[in-house]
Amino acid sequence: MDVNGGGELHNNQFYQCEESKPLLGEMSDGHNNAKPGAGPCKRPLHHCSSSGMRYKLLHEGDIQVCVLKHPRTFLSKILTSKFLRRWEPHHLTLTDSCLSSATPTGYMETSLSYSSIEDLQLLSWDNAPKYCIQLSFPGGTVLLQAANSYLRDQWFHSLQWKKKIYKYRKVLNNPSRWDVVLKEIRALVDMALSSPLQDESIHQAPLHIISTLLAENSSLSAQDHENIIVAIAPLLENNHPPPDLCEFFCKHCRERPRSMVVIEVFTPVVQRILKHNMDFGKCPRLRLFTQEYILALNELNGGMEVVKKFVHSMHGPTGHCPHPRVLPNLVAVCLAAIYSCYEEFINSRDNSPSLKEIRNGCQQLNDRKPPMPLRLLRPEPPTPPPANLLPLATTPSPPHEILVELERNNNSANVKKKAGPAGGDSEPNLIDCLLVSPAVNTLSIQLPAQADRVLGCFALILKMLSDYDDWRPALASLLQPIPFPKEALAHAKFTKELKYVIQRFAEDPRQEVHSCLLSVRSGKDGWFQLYSPGGVACDDDGELFASMVHILMGSCYKTKKFLLSLAENKLGPCMLLALRGNQTMVEILCLMLEYNIIENKDTQLQIISTLESTQVGFRMYEQLCDRQRELKELQRKGGPTRLTLPSKSTDADLARLLSSGSFGNLENLSLAFTNVTSACAEQLIKLPSLKQLNLWSTQFGDAGLRLLSEHLACLQVLNLCETPVTDAGLVALSSMKSLCSLNMNSTKLTADTYEDLKAKLPNLKDVDVRYTEAW
After folding, report:
1. Do the Cβ atoms of 235 and 203 come closer than 8 Å?
2. DSSP letters of 292-349?
3. pLDDT in tens, 728-765
């Protein structure tokens, strides 16, 4: 508001309309077309029309103070006098209950309580451009003078806000009649929505007041709950609910999941949480509220179809979700919900307080119920096969079910044991069962009905998330560490639901997706191990395992290393699947023979017998033998030591040339300015004496470079100038310790990869990195 000498006092327009705003929810039932039950959740908002100025809420600041103690009937004479009273500079602080000075002397020797302020106005004088605020209190007036009109208005709105929020806090802390309380809540919400102040506390303060009110009055009726939720709905459009309010919302979702409030009020709140929340760890009740909201949707007539529509609405109609936080937040909610299903099992395992007990404040050991011991019933071991039936491969025995039952025993917390077979050891605990393979690799866990519904709901949400192509890379990365309790991985129902998600990862051609099937670090199992034959989650005789091997072999640049890993850990399952005619496993066994992965002669003969036992295996083994004969001829000593292919030569030309004679002495090969691609790497790795390779200005890429790094360990000179190689392939050169000359001129080499190569290649002396980022 401008102060430009009008000769009169002006009340602020915002202050006038603040007192006359309509209450929330005063809507006529007979004058609208709202659906029954939906009306109370929507209302028009009548905001004050103001000048459009916005101010930050003041908590402290410097200002001039003058106190006039006089009968209020003489106020006009004092204000129009030529000389005003003495002014004092003060640094004032706006606390929650009063206005106080950092130097309590003079006019501000005592604090001024908001409850004692009777009136709050802006002042202006004719021919005296002072920017003042008038605070009337019993027996006098306090005048505050600011440096300019903007600062004066900021002080005015801040004081007005502090005064009103103090009043509402006092009124709502001692409720008498709930119809009056609801009216005050509506007025409080309207005040916050129409305030020109821009500060997080403007909307959070009313929410905290209301959450405190609800926490201290737990005996409210369901209708009172809904009325309060509808009243505060506008404040939640742009603000997260505080923790206590989340607890109240959770209770409402559990007790009245079919209420229209859940759909019409909670939906935008949960959508905002999923889109904008950065860390559920700072406010876990936001995650719990989101979890209860999704379970409430599942209780509707449509069930999971409603949940599916909600997930789709969070993703959006396009092929790419515009909100990067939605997926991690949804995954966090699913993981927490799944973890809660097995909480009793986990609690009985480590004897720690459950989340429910922590929420209820039962932290002390003597406040808690005795732990729930697990009773594992181990069946008789299977009868061993006759000695004369020795399979070619070690086949996993069929899984044996172990029933896990929970028992409450107030007298003892020890695990009950049941007599097993003669000579048997004491029965294992739940975690040990997961490590026994393959004789004991499946657990049948009986969950309570409610936990079973929760598990089914959130496992299906993970399946829904895996169906979105743009979400799948991030989802695979989030699930790569296997962030589930061991009890869940031992639960047949859960692993069966999760198998769909892993199958989607295995079918995705993008390396960033299917590479997450492998373990996140060495020494830790990944999905590849869990769903392989003998793994705790395998229930399909290795079909998913075969598809995972197929996709990984197609893109895994560490092919030889991957084959070594299979030979060490999964050779038996690979041979069993090859024996059953699986073509992928037949190819794996042929590669193991071709790359000399298997050193033991007996094992080699067993693999050959396995290949010859099926038609597809016999045919591929014959092709392998033909290639081996050609390879021996190629590597036979003799032939040229240097060879240069004509320009424009192709991969087929190179293969035709190398099949024409012996090249066991070839040390220097130039393919510069030819049309060869990464496919020719299959031919290059057959040259045992190759030491110098020139690929200048070819289409040789990352895939070929990865293959060379595994097989040409003796290569000393490599020219990659003007090739399309990138960091993804160049980083593989770190295993070629014999390299002493490397030309990466005009490639997509980065500085970080260059430094990494220099550190890992001790013999590297001559390097050309011109026209790269590392130059």
Report:
1. yes
2. HHHHHHHTSTTTHHHHHHHHHHHH-SSSS-S-TTHHHHHHHHHHHHHHHHTHHHHHHH
3. 899 999 989 999 999 999 999 999 999 999 999 999 99
Q: Which of 135-149, 409-423, 688-702 has the highest mean pLDDT?
A: 688-702
pLDDT for the residue numbered 81:
58
Identity at 40, one-letter amino acid code: P
Domain coordinates in residue numbering, the chain: 55-156, 162-347, 558-637, 638-768
Half-sphere exposure of 731 (CA within 13 A, CB side): 10
Q: What are 120's strand-pairing partners? A: 135
pTM beyond 0.85: the answer is no
Fold of 55-156: PH-domain like (2.30.29)
CA 507 to chain centroid, in Å, comes to 22
Cα–Cα distance, 338 to 357 (Å, whole number)? 18
642 CB-near residues (< 8 Å, 6+ apart): 666, 667, 668, 669
Task: Give the CA distances from residue 595 to residues 68, 80, 487, 599, 683, in Å, rounded to whole numbers and listed in that order.
Answer: 99, 103, 40, 10, 14
Instruction: Please report which confidence band the pLDDT of residue 442 belongs to, taking 50, 70 and 90 as the band edges.
Output: very low
Segment 300-327, tens digit of pLDDT: 999 899 999 999 999 999 989 999 999 9
634 within 8 A of 664, measured Cβ to Cβ: yes
Report yes or no: 476 and 437 within 8 Å, Cβ to Cβ.
no
Structure tokens at 83: 């000389």
For residues 179 and 191, give the distance between their C-alpha atoms in angstroms, rounded to a whole number: 19
CA distance 619 to 87: 104
Give every CB contact of residue 361 below 8 A, 6+ residues apart in sequence.
none
Q: Residue type for 457, please? A: C
H/E stretch holding 17: helix 13-18
The CATH class, in words, for 638-768 is alpha beta
